[in-house]
Amino acid sequence: MALYFAYGSNMLTARLKARCPSATALGAVFLPDHDLAFDKISADGSAKATLAVAKGSRVAGVLFELDEGDLGALDQLEGTGFGYDAARLALPWQGAPVFARSYIAPPGFRDAKLRPYDWYLGLCVAGALEHGLPRDWIRRLIATPRCPDPDPARPRRIEADALLASCPAEWRLS
Asked: Which residue, 113, 119, 126, 135, has most beta carbons within 10 Å?
């Protein structure tokens, strides 16, 4: 079994399980000395979430356990080597450090002018609410500048809309 730290759209258990059927949420966790940024360049022209080193800051997310085979599939889905680099992060968990896989965009794959699509940010917020992340963290996510997706037929958008429609109404961005 492997550990995975989700901090973006994969925090929503249904989204991650659709990609990695063995995924089991262990709970909320905080990555020290990092910050969250929505500036990872995506092939769809929008921004996705990534991590940046930031002494004294912390990122709220969800720790998942999954099979090694699913970890390989996740590497492929996240575009390891083509936008995200796989990272081994130390996280405090139940009084001891654990190491978990996550993904970080290298400098050449970041653009601060980009915005996440509303559906992508909606997945992030729904996942944060599902796992009881702190209200101030959820408010920060909700306040992130976002833009509408210009392509109503985009497969990722259709998938996200279906996932969000199955969530409680209070988990959805308005």
From this structure: 126
Distance separating alpha carbons of residues 173 and 169, to the nearest angstrom: 9
Q: DSSP 3-state assignment of 60?
A: strand
CATH number, domain containing residue 30 = 3.10.490.10
Q: Which domain holds residue 154?
A: 2-171
Closest C-alpha among 18, 68, 31, 2 to residue 10? 18
Residues in the chain: 174
The label of the residue with tokens 């995975």 reads 4
**What are the binding residues?**
4-9, 120
Block residue for tokens 């794959």: 109
Active site residues per annotation: 78
pLDDT single digits (tens) 109-149: 999 999 999 999 999 999 999 999 999 999 999 999 999 99
Count of domains for the chain: 1
Name the packing angle between helices 155-165 and 118-130 (round to 10°): 40
Q: At 174, is the pLDDT very low, low, confident or very high (cuts 50, 70, 90)?
A: low
Secondary-structure breakdown of the chain: helix, strand, coil percentages, each rounded to the nearest 5? 35, 40, 30
pTM above 0.70, yes or no: yes
E strands, the chain, in order: 2-6, 24-41, 47-66, 85-93, 96-104
